[in-house]
Specification:
The complex is a heterodimer of chains A (about 375) and B (about 100). In chain A, about 30% of the residues lie in helices and about 30% in strands. Chain A is α+β, with helices and mostly antiparallel strands. Chain B contains five helices and no strands. The chains are: A alpha+beta (about 375), B mainly alpha (about 100).
């Protein structure tokens, strides 16, 4: 293999992209390089504070791999700095050992181009393991869930239905009504422990778009998180655009004083043959921002809103410890997660001690890839 | 223990796992043969840092430095002697 060069992908690379994809396809590998906008849920409108790029790796004239990045402002310990999220690293080394150097070089190049870079994703993916092995700070983003309807949950949840015996049991529990009884009992136990949504005194409104009120929330609460991506109105217009019909935007305020608390973005979509959730109405808390002290009220209001939207199951990933405590206080249950946060060494250096600081990192399903696989 | 023996042990035990115990010829291709893949390379780079304090710079992350155990040895020795000797070491090993 000769020397490798890196540059941003552009339309004139179309033939090289096609040739690369043909080689991957011929080897039976599903990974592809593309010239399309990498972060599909982000609206790249005029004035958007988010920049999307594809970094391509060439050996002479031939494309050997690449990766995607999105750049935007984050508050790093309260200071605005440009931080990049990367995804979709692809290397021809997957199909041809002669190009084994490509993936490590892409990882190096992304860190060189974007010193403050992070990724989210599975630890057991090739990219996840690569970052972990290359010394990126790696920590799980906790996962919580609440079953709202036992029957569709039991009939569809893949994790419980992988083994034949368990599948039969879940079918039996669903058909006999035992699942619903069990869920009601769990609800009673949780209530006795004080773990249930409290929505008294909370006004939850559906809103169609983002206005200046979002900036008021952003200015007020952003300092409470050690690392958080821009969630000003300008950013939200791109991240959660009005034209995305799957996104439900909620605004929270107090009934008595009409004090604005914050907002949430959720989805409640009937998924079809989903790898993990089969064919149920999946409720997902994509993103939500309020001050940590209001997290419990807003977590409860969000679960209640998803119940009203006929969700069978509510799921959420959040990296902030205070939010995860809030999700448990409203009756959600923790489960094993394979969704991880990876911080490049240069970004990691900004936090000391990192394990303590990372409890106040704000990463949701809206970060990294954005809200995908939810509808 | 020599660098060659150290690297060989690391590749056999850590990258190829215990069921592939055996011998690796110092001039046997590691990358082209698929014995060491991308992840293996990253782990190997971490190993060289931990074991010998050798930091692999971006420009040094080329197959010529990692293709065989002999080249890795030459690379490590070159790095320990200083940046100028690094390439000379690799060339000497390549000419074996």
């Amino acid at each position: 293999m000769n020397g490798l060069d890196f540059r941003l992908g552009c339309a004139r690379d179309a033939a090289k992209v096609e040739a690369f994809n043909r080689r991957m396809s011929a080897a039976g590998n599903p990974h592809r390089v593309s010239l399309e906008k990498p972060f599909t849920t982000i609206a790249q409108n005029e004035g958007s504070p988010i920049v999307q790029e594809r970094v391509f790796c060439f050996e002479g004239d031939e494309l050997r791999g690449g990766a995607s990045a999105r750049r935007m402002t984050f508050l790093v310990n309260g200071r605005p700095e440009e931080v990049a999220a990367w995804m979709e690293p692809v290397s021809e080394g997957i199909i041809n050992p002669a190009f084994a150097m490509v993936a490590p070089r892409i990882e190096r190049e992304m860190r060189r181009r974007y010193p403050l870079i992070f990724a989210t994703g599975a630890l057991d993916s090739g990219a996840g393991e690569m970052m972990y092995r290359a010394g990126w700070y790696t920590r799980p983003i906790p996962f919580h869930f609440a079953v709202l309807r036992a029957h569709p949950f039991l009939r569809n949840i893949a994790h419980l239905r992988r083994r034949r015996g368990l599948k039969l049991l879940t079918d039996l529990a669903a058909a006999s009504g035992l699942g619903a009884v069990g869920l009601a009992l769990l609800g009673m136990v949780q209530r006795a422990r004080g773990r249930y949504p409290r929505t008294d005194g909370l006004i939850v409104e559906r809103v169609e778009g983002w206005g200046e009120w979002v900036d008021e929330v952003w200015e007020r609460v952003r300092g409470q998180y050690a690392l958080i991506g821009d969630r000003s109105s300008k950013a939200l217009v791109s991240l959660y655009p009005a034209e995305n019909e799957h996104l439900i935007r909620l605004r929270f305020s107090t009934a008595d004083t009409k004090r604005l608390l914050g907002w949430a973005v959720v989805t409640a979509s009937r998924v079809k043959d989903h790898k993990q959730f089969g064919n149920m109405v999946l409720g997902a808390i994509v993103d939500l921002l309020v001050a940590p002290e209001d997290a419990c009220a807003v977590a409860g209001g969000t679960v209640a809103a998803l119940r009203d939207a006929n969700a069978d199951l509510v799921v959420v990933n959040h990296s902030d410890r205070r939010w995860n405590e809030a999700f448990e206080r409203v009756g959600m249950l923790p489960a094993r997660t394979n969704h991880y946060l990876f911080l490049a060494p240069e970004l990691k250096k900004r936090f000391s001690p990192i394990d303590e600081c990372s409890e106040r990192f704000f990463f949701t399903r809206g970060d990294g890839h954005g809200p995908i696989h939810l509808w | 223990v020599s660098i060659e023996a150290d690297v060989e042990r690391f590749i056999l035990e850590e990258l190829l796992l215990a069921n592939r115990r055996g011998k690796i010829d110092p001039d046997q291709p590691l990358i082209a043969s698929g014995m060491v893949d991308s992840l293996g390379l990253i782990r190997l780079i971490g190993f060289l840092d931990e074991q010998y304090g050798v930091k692999v710079e971006d420009g040094e992350l080329v197959a010529d430095n990692f293709q065989t155990i002999a080249l890795i040895k030459a690379f490590v020795e070159g790095k320990r002697q200083g940046p100028r000797d690094c390439q000379a070491g690799a060339k000497a090993a390549a000419g074996r």
